[in-house]
Structures are given as C-alpha cells and as structure tokens.
Amino acid sequence: MQKITKVIMPVAGLGTRSLPASKNIPKEMLPVFNKPIIQYVVEEALEAELSNVVFVTGREKTVLEDHFDHHFPLEETLERAGKKALLGEVINAANMINLITVRQKERLGLGHAVLCAETIIHDNEAFGVMVGDDLILGEPSGMKQLIDVAQRENMPVIGVLEVAPEHVNKYGIVAGNTREDGIIEITDMVEKPAIGTAPSCMAIIGRYVLTSEIFKYLHDTKPGHGGEIQLTDALKAYALEHKMLAVPIKGIRFDAGDWVDYLTANLFFALKDTKIKPELLKRMEKLLQDYSA
Ligand code: UTP
C-alpha cells in the first residue's frame, strides 16, 4: 500500500442531537475547551501525516473552511496588541492543512457523503475517512494506529471500540474472527442492531482506512437504516468479497454529538491545561458536593 496522504471528513450533517446549539453553527465548530471539535479531528489526522483533508460540506458550513484559512484583520489586530501566543494559535490553524472541499448537495447519509469525494481519490489509492464529530485520543493517534495496520497488512481497516451490550443499538457492529493480536478478521457487519441481536459488542467508530474500490460498493448501496445510504452497508458488501480488518483502537473516544460525552470532553481537555486545572477542580468539587447532597 502506497503512502496515504488524503483523508475524507464528512461534515455535512444537520447535527440535530446538538440543537439548539447547532442551529446556526455547524456542530463540528462547537468548542471543546478552547478549540472547535473539528480542529481536534484535523490534528489527529496530521499526527498520521494526512495533510490533504477533504471536507464534505453542505449549506451553512463555510465557517469550517474559514477556520483553516487566514483571518488577516484578526491577525493584524493581535500582532498590534502584541498577543503573540494567540496570534500563533490563529496562524497555526490557517497553515495546518491543504484543504479540499466537496459539496454534499443532499444529506443522504454518511455513505453518500464519502461517495461525494470519489473524484478526489485516484484509482487504487488508499485514503482515510474520519467522522467530523468523533474525538479520539490515542497514543499514537487513533488514525495512526489504523494506518500502521493497513500498511502492514495491505488491506482496508476500520476502527472499533468495545461498548456495553445495552449500547450496541447506537453503532455499526462488526462480527468476525479475533486473532491473537486482538485484530478482528471481519465476516459481517450490521448497522444499529436491536439490543440482544448484535453479533458482538465491537462498535464501529468514525475512523477508517479504505481503498478506491469502496466507491463501487457505495454506488450499489441502497438507503438502509433511517433511510440513509449507510457506509456500514457498503463496507459489509465489500467485506463479504474481500479481506478487511477491524482494529480495536487504544484510546479514549468522545461522541461530540452526545451531550454527556461532549461535556466530559470539555472537562477532560480543560483539565490538561495546568493554568486552569486547580480552579476548575475546585469548582467541580463544589458542584459534586451540591449535587450529591
Ligand atoms: P451523524 O450520524 O452524527 O449525523 O453524522 P448528524 O446529522 O451530523 O448529527 P445528528 O445525529 O442529527 O445529531 C456523523 C458525521 O457524518 C456527517 C456529519 O456531519 C457528522 O460529522 N454526515 C452525516 C454527512 O456529512 N452527511 C450526511 O448525510 C450525514
């Protein structure tokens, strides 16, 4: 497998779970501590050397592109005010990636969003897919863990995490043979199975390394769960005819579209800042006392 440099990030969803906060701000631009959600995802991609980022966007999403571009009036103001650290942060976001955008004109699902980027990917090229609202903190980064396996084994891989049996109905679930190293040789996949019917508890999270062959399967995929063209359905069809691995990602994951996960992620990242950690902990303790009384 050749070096992988491109990653498709579908960010065209409506974000209904994040309403009303996401009414006029894309969910992916909501802040987690001091950065928008999407910046964490982009930084994870960069750790895996994926610097050609394809945003699949929709209406009212241009603010996402702007975040990764220069804002000259702001930069000049910060420069004049001598706010060097902040200026550095602002310029850093502008220089981070080579950004390509494609439009998903109808929100027909995650599989359809990936298909919208077909023309950007060459024949036989491998590429990453990262869902723009999943935060994954791994060491090395979640995406790097997947790319290492995909390149070593020369086949597509998808990232999974074990979830509680009562949560399987929120995810795509894989079935297969688990090797000694914990990697699963996929034999089947099912999107959001009813509790008690799932083939395993290994849930597909928003990280994939695929090859251009997947587009053929996406073209053939009919609307599935929720009437949407599901990426899981295309992956399942692919996995029935080819080898594909599920790699349990070592790390922590937050679904930024879920309020409890979103708020926990805010605390998690804020507590890494030594300047605010002591005061934040004090306030958290006070809240705990008040609410457990
Ligand atoms: P979600 O399943 O979280 O859907 O999409 P959503 O519409 O964003 O949010 P909810 O469930 O209504 O709250 C996972 C990712 O796939 C993108 C979203 O932007 C999100 O980053 N997506 C989803 C698309 O780009 N297009 C789609 O048609 C659907």
Structure description:
The chain is of the alpha/beta class and 293 residues long. It has one domain (6-257): Spore Coat Polysaccharide Biosynthesis Protein SpsA, Chain A. It is 35% helix and 24% strand. It has helices at residues 37-47, 62-67, 72-80, 84-95, 110-115, 142-153, 214-220, 231-241, 259-270, 277-292; strands at 6-10, 31-32, 35-36, 52-57, 98-103, 126-130, 134-138, 157-162, 172-178, 184-191, 202-211, 245-248, 251-255. It has a five-stranded mixed barrel with strand order 8-11-9-10-12. The chain has a two-stranded antiparallel sheet with strand order 2-3. Strand 9 and strand 10 (184-191) form a beta hairpin. The N and C termini lie far apart (58 Å). 39% of the residues are buried. The mean pLDDT is 95. Uridine 5'-triphosphate is lined by residues 10-18, 27, 56, 104, 107-110, 112-113, 131-133, 257. Residues 10-18, 27, 56, 104, 107-110, 112-113, 131-133, 257 line the site of uridine 5'-triphosphate (UTP).
Fraction of residues in H or I helices: 25-40%
CATH superfamily: Spore Coat Polysaccharide Biosynthesis Protein SpsA, Chain A
How many separate helices? Answer: 10
CATH class (first level) name: Alpha Beta
Please give the number of β-strands: 13
| Spatial ordering of strands, largest sheet | 8-11-9-10-12
User: Uncertain runs with pLDDT below 50, 5 residues or more?
Assistant: none
Query: Would you give the CATH topology?
Result: Spore Coat Polysaccharide Biosynthesis Protein SpsA, Chain A
Secondary structure class reads alpha/beta
Per CATH, which architecture? Alpha-Beta Complex
Report on the biggest sheet. Answer: 5 strands, mixed, barrel
Radius of gyration: 20 Å
pLDDT average, as an integer? 95
The end-to-end distance, rounded to whole angstroms, is: 58 Å
Order of helices and strands: EEEHEHHHEHEEHEEEEHHEEHH
Overall domain count:
1
